[in-house]
Design goal:
The protein is an alpha+beta fold and about 425 residues long. The chain has two domains: about 230 residues, no CATH class; about 160 residues, 2-Layer Sandwich (Alpha-Beta Plaits). It is built from 13 helices and five strands. The protein has a five-stranded mixed β-sheet, sandwiched between helices. β2 and β3 form a beta hairpin. α2 crosses α4. The two termini are about 50 Å apart.
């Protein structure tokens, strides 16, 4: 169904859909288009995620006074001077068009700063419950990257840097856990081991979610492109079918059915505007002897050459040339007076004669292909008047043939 180039492109897209699970990236040109589509969705999502983050960041600030009694000033400075402005700026980015090409990287930086901010707050918190901040950091990374739909490679990069920061804070900055559980156990080591395991689990979830979302998004992108190609092809085929339904296949002029529909429309228009309509009925002179002696292929060529001349004389709006049957053609000209229509017909007749197509088997003295034309002009009284005008033009054509052919005869229909 698809054209050769489109069919090849369609097959390439289908092959990309069937690639192994570990292959995500597309060929370069398609990858750029996919990333552009991701940016459009990210622009819509970042504002919502940022505003939600601001709200949660403000509300969770109430915990600082309870958990950070000894370092509350530093904690508040990190929360409201460092992290909060970043979230506000991130929420404003969708309104800045210059930032749109880099919106994913800005989102990545915003999520990283929010996570690092919470991690730093945990490091400055002297409390048995400071690990709650580490849990909060992990939730920020997981849900922030997932909701914004960062690409897998970006989430992997984010997790790597957050891992380094987490390990550093856990080993060097986190005060020992002081909990009396009544048993001889190094509770600090247990808590750090649990936090490490929790971190691995959460980051694995973040990576896996990012992979699934990106793979699903890429599949959707490819399917949308394939559907778009099929839709475009159907439109092209529909247009071609419509053209075939209204076109004569040999001459590529309008066919009789299309002419009749067009004539009714133009007569209705002329009736409203009180404008004349001219019908020109044209017949190739001595066409049967030509076909009999030169063959049907040569006869078809003559009809095509005549059609070419008619196309040159019907290029304006409100004009149409059609094959009416056999070697007979018909033209409709909107807005031409009797004299103008006759001059138009004479120009067509002379143009066909000047082509000099040889015709030695005529019963007169002329040795080239010629045409006879009957003309009828009228201001229509209804959209059906074209039929009466065609009949009048046919009578004029009969007179042209009776008077010797290769001439124009006109009739004023009203």
């Amino acid at each position: 169904m698809l054209g050769d180039k489109r069919s090849l492109a369609f097959c390439e897209l289908k092959q990309l859909l069937e690639r192994p699970w570990w292959k995500l990236r597309f060929p370069e040109a398609l990858e750029l288009q996919f990333q552009a589509s991701l940016r459009l969705s990210a622009i819509l999502q970042i504002r919502v995620v940022s505003l939600l983050g601001i709200l949660l960041f403000m509300v969770s600030g109430a915990l600082d006074h309870w958990l950070s009694a000894h370092g509350v000033s530093m904690v508040l400075w990190i929360r409201y001077v460092v992290v909060l402005p970043v979230l506000v700026a991130l929420a404003m980015l969708p309104s800045i068009k210059m930032a749109h090409p880099y919106i994913e990287w800005f989102a990545l930086i915003g999520v990283a700063i929010a996570g690092l901010g919470v991690l730093a707050i945990g490091a400055f918190t002297i409390s048995p419950f400071n690990y709650l901040y580490y849990i909060g950091m992990m939730l920020i990374i997981v849900f922030g990257s997932t909701l914004i739909r960062l690409r897998f490679v970006m989430v992997a990069l984010l997790n790597f840097w957050m891992l380094l920061a987490f390990v550093y804070c856990l080993v060097y900055k986190t005060p020992p856990t002081q909990l009396n559980v009544g048993i001889d156990v190094d509770i600090d080591a247990v808590v750090k081991a649990l936090m490490s395991g929790y971190w691995v689990a959460m980051m694995s979830i973040a990576m896996f979610s990012a992979y699934l979302f990106e793979r699903f998004g890429r599949h959707q992108f490819l399917q949308a492109r394939m559907l778009e190609m099929e839709t475009d092809e159907l439109k092209v085929l529909g247009k071609k079918l419509h053209e075939l339904s209204i076109t004569d296949p040999l001459t590529e002029l309008a066919n009789r059915r299309h002419f009749e529909s067009f004539a009714a429309t133009q007569c209705h228009r002329a009736e409203k505007n009180r404008q004349p309509v001219a019908i020109l009925l044209l017949d190739v002179d001595f066409f049967k002897p030509y076909n009999d002696h030169y063959g049907h292929q040569k006869g078809d060529l003559v009809l095509q050459r005549v059609a070419w001349v008619l196309r040159q004389h019907t290029k304006r709006g409100g004009e149409i040339a059609a094959r009416y049957g056999g070697e007979e053609f018909i033209l409709l000209i909107y807005g031409e007076s009797q004299d103008e229509a006759v001059a138009h017909a004479e120009s067509i007749r002379a143009g066909i004669e000047m082509m000099g197509l040889e015709h030695k088997f005529r019963s007169d003295d002329c040795a080239v292909v010629t045409v006879s034309i009957g003309v009828s002009v009228k201001i229509p009284a209804s959209e059906d008047d074209w039929a009466a005008m065609t009949s009048a033009a046919d009578q004029s054509l009969y007179r042209a043939k009776s008077e010797g052919r290769n001439r124009v005869v006109s009739t004023r229909s009203g």
